[in-house]
UniProtKB/TrEMBL annotation:
It comes from Phytomonospora endophytica. Keywords: Membrane, Transmembrane, Transmembrane helix. Residues 150-223 are annotated as: Disordered. This is Uncharacterized protein. The chain crosses the membrane at residues 7-30, 50-67, 74-92, 112-134. It comes from the Bacteria. The keyword Transmembrane applies. Residues 175-192 have a biased composition (Low complexity).
Amino acid sequence: MRHVLSLIYGLFGALAAWVAAAIGANAFAFHAMESAGAPLPDGAWAKTKLIGYAGLAVAGLILGFLATLRLSPAGPILAGVILIGGQVVYEYKANWLELKALTEGLKLDPAALALPSATYAPVIIGTILLTAALSISRWRNPKAVAETTDYTPAEAPLGSTALNDTYGQQPIDPFAPTAPTYEPAPAAPAQPSMYVDDGEGATTQLPHNPAGQQKPPPPAYGA
């Protein structure tokens, strides 16, 4: 459906832009004729530069809308083909552009519809529209792109709500302090000290003499 709507925009947009450009070009031509003192057709209204600039601006707005159309690139392609085709018709069958019923109804010059092609601008604008349609992103459905960009529980980023609901845990903070994973070694049992303090001086060490054993006397010299 979006391709059909884009084709409708491209068809009527290209034709409307061509007519707006023809009105603008006709206004510049009539202004030049009036400045030179040449007679104008009865009821001619497009004869000032302001109308000329307004017509060209409207044509630019329509073509800019077609170039940035997000529905489908089919519309810009059709518009580009119409503009380039109009230039080809002007080169070989210029009389096909003299639609007297339209020009007489708009009070324009009979050759007004051929004036946009006289500047060869349709070739430039048509090429721009065809180039804009080559973008890969324009061929994608915006709804499909929006669905693929949503996160699924398996693709949820770390710490997101989806991840917490799936695994039932809180977000992991890499900067939070962690408790030590080792246990301190048990303290060694207290050993009896070999040092005593008599309260009068420095601590002295008692000789090692097991209970119930006397120390033998030292040997006599010369014995």
